[in-house]
């Protein structure tokens, strides 16, 4: 990896660490205070919001990153029009969640009210995602990191404060989780200054052009968020609040190894939008898988004694789903980088197709397995979906751009050398700045 790419990945990595780390630290607190059933009810209350954050975007955050990165058109026009579409999506999404709340709550009036409360955060959270997309296109990874840090600190601090004062309930936890989903937007007050400094091309990106690319990305994002979050939204009706509580804990743990993958995906989408480099993309896939696998192994070993110790004996049954989900994270990693390559190279529809394959497998399996195996069945379904989605993306990028399948898999001596060189380069930069 080039020095600049390595540094961008590192800064993005720092930002991507905070959200799952905050979720992991707060998970035992929520589990101990709320119990298995209460934790499941909280998961049911916030799952629609998390789901809608991917569905209601119209693909605008990614489209804004793409056009800003390519310096195509007036940047002010891209920002203004992207935020307008996000406002529309937020309004429609909020109304849809409130209308569907009774069905998603499986007949519970209390959970339905919590779902409606969480839905209020959708619009500001979507606008935040648009600002983040612009910052990513400008390679302002420091701003993105600061935003995620602020949100994570406020979420962790809020949950801890409620627990210490004895006021942590499903209602107060829902308010904190929803409110902190957009609190980090304050860092983007400096974004207009950066936009004004960057001159775009003469071509004006029209609403139709922005929406055309965004809609193709949106299909993939929509299916991707379904693949990642829909199981939590339907597990309560399919199984029980206890199963959902166990599964939410397993998901929060299994997402920790994704921090490096997420950082690599963010940087590669922006970089590949600027210029296409086959070897860089393949190297990013392999190195991301190496690091992700190493993190996953460590987390799996720690989880064996750690889950009952941190979460309580009632959550011991979350271990098997956690291990299954960790396996899915590693096996699906190469394809996730390939799918980003498809989007950045102007083929977001094919990324959507790959995700659709994975989601279909996930949905069919969870419908069959969740009523029988509960959280374990949901984990098996998620693992299968991630594997099939990733492999399909690799098949597409092989067919269209001439990659070999082996380019995204395995371990080469050069990969380790690249990682070591990147670490040495970054360490050298820090020493020079110190």
UniProtKB/TrEMBL annotation:
<feature type="transmembrane region" description="Helical">
    <location>
        <begin position="318"/>
        <end position="340"/>
    </location>
</feature>
<feature type="transmembrane region" description="Helical">
    <location>
        <begin position="82"/>
        <end position="104"/>
    </location>
</feature>
<protein>
    <submittedName>
        <fullName>O-antigen/teichoic acid export membrane protein</fullName>
    </submittedName>
</protein>
<feature type="transmembrane region" description="Helical">
    <location>
        <begin position="9"/>
        <end position="30"/>
    </location>
</feature>
<feature type="transmembrane region" description="Helical">
    <location>
        <begin position="352"/>
        <end position="372"/>
    </location>
</feature>
<dbReference type="InterPro" id="IPR050833">
    <property type="entry name" value="Poly_Biosynth_Transport"/>
</dbReference>
<feature type="transmembrane region" description="Helical">
    <location>
        <begin position="171"/>
        <end position="192"/>
    </location>
</feature>
<feature type="transmembrane region" description="Helical">
    <location>
        <begin position="234"/>
        <end position="260"/>
    </location>
</feature>
<feature type="transmembrane region" description="Helical">
    <location>
        <begin position="110"/>
        <end position="128"/>
    </location>
</feature>
<feature type="transmembrane region" description="Helical">
    <location>
        <begin position="378"/>
        <end position="397"/>
    </location>
</feature>
<feature type="transmembrane region" description="Helical">
    <location>
        <begin position="290"/>
        <end position="312"/>
    </location>
</feature>
<feature type="transmembrane region" description="Helical">
    <location>
        <begin position="204"/>
        <end position="228"/>
    </location>
</feature>
<dbReference type="InterPro" id="IPR002797">
    <property type="entry name" value="Polysacc_synth"/>
</dbReference>
<keyword id="KW-0472">Membrane</keyword>
<feature type="transmembrane region" description="Helical">
    <location>
        <begin position="140"/>
        <end position="165"/>
    </location>
</feature>
<keyword id="KW-1133">Transmembrane helix</keyword>
<keyword id="KW-0812">Transmembrane</keyword>
<feature type="transmembrane region" description="Helical">
    <location>
        <begin position="42"/>
        <end position="61"/>
    </location>
</feature>
<keyword id="KW-1003">Cell membrane</keyword>
<dbReference type="Pfam" id="PF01943">
    <property type="entry name" value="Polysacc_synt"/>
</dbReference>
